[in-house]
Amino acid sequence: MPNRANAHRRAHDDAPDTADAFRRLVALPPGPRRDALRSRIVEAWLPMADRLAGRFRNRGESLDDLRQVAALGLVKAVDRYDPRLGNAFESYAVPTVTGEIKRHFRDHMWALHVPRRVQELRNRVRSAGQELAGSLSGRRSTVGEIAERAQLSEDDVRTGLEALESFTALSLDAELPGSEDGRSLGDALGEADPALDTVVDREAVRLRIAALPERERTILYMRFFGDMTQSRIAEQLGISQMHVSRLISRCCTRLRDQVMQDRA
Questions:
Q1: Cα–Cα distances in Å, from 198 out to 160, 201, 202, 204?
Q2: How far apart are CA 205 and CA 188, in angstroms?
Q3: Neighbouring-strand partners of residue 50
């Protein structure tokens, strides 16, 4: 009876006949002879791994790195393949190598960690969009059309579309679209208003200030809102500067203690 691996018609020129080498490999015990034969099998199939890596070029990863990932997948395929099951090595190696490359994109090419479910939605939405592109006379497919083709809900499609735009991070130094003065994205981002830090404090003391005697309220207003010196305040109120200083110090201490007590 002919061996199914030998009877399998090789679809590509880079699929060498290594059926006999695999049969000898599984029969050899661990050692130098087995390692040498294993290395020769891997080298023989490297062109196939390179071809598979080339399918994923221009997706944000260098071809050299993709070839390394594909070679790793090939090694795994060689180590796990059992010729005694009767299947051709190529039919086992192709999905193994391709899966290794796809895992590389899934685990290493996202700028931010994205849940696997969102990554899968992205792939299904992208595939559905590509399938619809040729039948829509140049217009963009709608969310509903993609949902029907991909058999997803419209909410899932929207999540997948957002993920399509989130594969890589946009640099803050990138120029703003339509900008004619060279402004970057970072220039358009807002900044924290330092005055916000004082809003809570001002609201906390507002009612306490309102409860102070009129003269003390007047002194605090003249000092902190009118930006008047203690000497000028003393002159206008007809009291000594020392007295003004003591009143300001006493009022501030009282307000601080009351506010801290309120927070506690």
A1: 42, 5, 6, 10
A2: 35
A3: none
Token pair recorded at residue 105: 């994109």
β-bridge mates for residue 175, sequence order: 184
What confidence score (pLDDT) does residue 5 get?
39
| Burial class (CB within 10 angstroms; exposed 0-12, middle 13-18, buried 19+) of 195 | exposed
Query: CA–CA separation, 106 vs 215, rounded Å?
Result: 70
Report pLDDT digits (tens) over 24-61.
998 999 999 999 999 999 999 999 999 999 988 877 77
Q: Is the pTM of this model over 0.70?
A: no
Shortest CA distance to 49 belongs to which of 107, 112, 94?
Answer: 94
Q: Which of 156, 160, 127, 157 is nearest to 142 (CA)?
A: 157
